[in-house]
Amino acid sequence: MSQHVNTSQIKSRVNINKIFKYLFIFAMALAMLFLAALIYRIVSQGMDYVSIDFLKNFPAPYIEEAGIFAGIMGSIFMMAITAPVSIIIGVSTALYLEEYAKQNKFTRFIQINVQNLAGVPSIVFGLLGLTFFVYIMGFGYTLIAGALTMSLLVLPVIVVSSQEAIRSVPQEIREASIGMGATKWQTIWRIVLPASIPGIITGAILALSRAIGETAPLIIVGAATAIYTIPDSFMSKYTVMPIQIYSWTARPQAEWQFVAAAGIIVLLVILLCMNAVAVWIRNKFQNRY
Amino acid sequence: MASNQMNKNLSVQDMIKQNKQKKNLGNAIEKIVPIFLLLCAVVSILTTIGILFTLLRESILFFTKVPLTDFYFGTNWSPWTEHFGVAPLIAGTLLITAIAICVAVPIGIACAIYLSEYASERARKIIKPILEILAGIPTVVYGFFALTFVSPLLMNIFPDMRIFNAMSAGLVVGIMIIPMIASLSEDAMSAVPKSLRDGALGLGATRFEVSMKVVLPAALSGIIASIVLAVSRAIGETMIVTIAAGATPNLTFNPTESIQTLTAFIVQGATGDTSYHSTIYNSIYAVGITLFIFTLLMNILSQYISRRFKEDY
């Protein structure tokens, strides 16, 4: 007799469930819609301006002649310095923390410090670079000052992702290596590092693709907007793609928007390629233990 | 074979000697490597010290010229006429952050609930990489989008709005941090054990009730931590606000007006004609340390929340 089930109540609960399900799907669709709108806008505005000339021209006062060549080369040169510096220091830090460090206060301090650095706004790194590399070290507004600033900026990301990659190498194969008579460093160099390299590279590519898109710190450390030569030494003046795009968006005449959009297309294509490589490495070398 | 022949020509003593040399080299490497690795690990600490040192040095110089109280309680920010009251910049930053959070929190958490509770494995596999793309887009692109698309769109709705305004910048900062909230919250929700969900479903709860009354409370600390982290990102975001919010320090909470944020002023100050060690140059660092303290507090808070309130199952 007590099986008095209130059907209308159940119905309303089921309905609420349905309504919210569609609300959640709607929210997800909204996020996708933003992405679609962004890409559609940029492609529709800039596609006509992307051409071979655009890729190989230097910045110019006229829209028809403006190009992004200096930016592309600058970004490449910058990565040529930033990548080795940040990867060597980052992976070394990760190796130290995972393989050598004892569990003490100092280790914990480094760990927390890395996490906090990851949360420091990029523009603050720009201020550090301005004071330290540009003025104190006396590099001036040069490629090396920008690249070193960028290295410090992406360092925490590389440390954290490398740590994860190193940690995912199972303890057994380390023990097996030690058991065969290998020393600690031999084990790390020949067993642990090769096994964790896919993870490290994936993390590094993602970090560097962030660096390629970074603008704020480079504005502060003085990337120039009008560069008519490609860098020929560490101490050259330089520009990078996002800085070029920024300088185009900042011009008062509306037509420069189309040039900026064209620059963005080039930048996004490069970033997409880098991400694709990262995903490919992650899938191909996924560790199976 | 070659090494065998070589060994034949050597006496036993020589071989032992050789072996020892090899071992010594090996031992040396074993000793040097940890030291090298430690030195690399110290770089991150030096970076932090460097940040603190540069920010403090220049802002102390600044505060010898402009009193601390004038800086933090002044309401007029026009550095080129020697008025250094930072309140308008802080107001601008908070306005942008508030708008961004209003956009990003509901959408981000809804996305997270959808992904962790409703989406099929297949849908998740397609949607997550798309969200990652959204997270990987450079902020200069978002800034461009805000200025050339969102602003004109909003000006149709609010006719007296300026082309540089807080609302479009704030909205787009919000869009930028959606993936961050969505993916971190989804991680937190996915960490809630399936048995809890099954228990609730077995008692006759609907999926929505499971999400709201079981998963959400259980994952709350992770979700809150992700929101705090997103606030920190919004406070520190630079390019979107530099491009789209204008450069008018404005003590207002009216989102249709043009404003300036802490970060946008740092860009303006560093690119304008400011000579080294002028008051304006020093003021960049005073603004920088204010920004740094804001975001540092947020980051520490976020770490504290996720550590302190972590639920163990």
UniProtKB/TrEMBL annotation, chain A:
Secretion signal: which residues? none
**Subcellular location(s) of the protein:** Cell membrane
Which residue windows are transmembrane per the record? 20-43, 68-97, 117-137, 143-166, 187-209, 256-281
* Record-linked SUPFAM superfamilies: MetI-like
Which Pfam families does the annotation name? Answer: BPD_transp_1
Q: Which InterPro entries match?
A: MetI-like, MetI-like_sf, Phosphate_PstA
Print the keywords alphabetically.
Cell membrane, Membrane, Transmembrane, Transmembrane helix, Transport
Q: What is its main location?
A: membrane
Which PROSITE patterns does the record cross-reference, listed alphabetically? ABC_TM1
Q: What is this protein called?
A: Phosphate transport system permease protein PstA
Automatic annotation (TrEMBL), chain B:
Note the topology in the membrane: Multi-pass membrane protein
Annotated transmembrane regions: 32-56, 89-115, 127-151, 163-184, 214-235, 280-301
Q: Does the keyword Membrane apply?
A: yes
Q: Which residues form the ABC transmembrane type-1 domain?
A: 90-302
Q: Which InterPro entries match?
A: MetI-like, MetI-like_sf, Phosphate_PstC
Q: Which domain of life is it from?
A: Bacteria
Concerning Pfam families, the annotation shows: BPD_transp_1 (PF00528)
Q: Which UniProt keywords apply?
A: Cell membrane, Membrane, Phosphate transport, Transmembrane, Transmembrane helix, Transport
Q: Where in the cell is it found?
A: Cell membrane; Membrane
Q: Which PANTHER family does the entry link to?
A: PHOSPHATE TRANSPORT SYSTEM PERMEASE (PTHR42727:SF1), PHOSPHATE TRANSPORT SYSTEM PERMEASE PROTEIN (PTHR42727)
Summarizing the function annotation, the protein's role is: Part of the binding-protein-dependent transport system for phosphate; probably responsible for the translocation of the substrate across the membrane.
Family to which the UniProt record says this protein belongs: Belongs to the binding-protein-dependent transport system permease family. CysTW subfamily.
Entries under NCBIfam families matching the protein: phosphate_pstC
> What's the protein called, per UniProt?
Phosphate transport system permease protein
Organism field? Gracilibacillus caseinilyticus
State the encoding gene: pstC
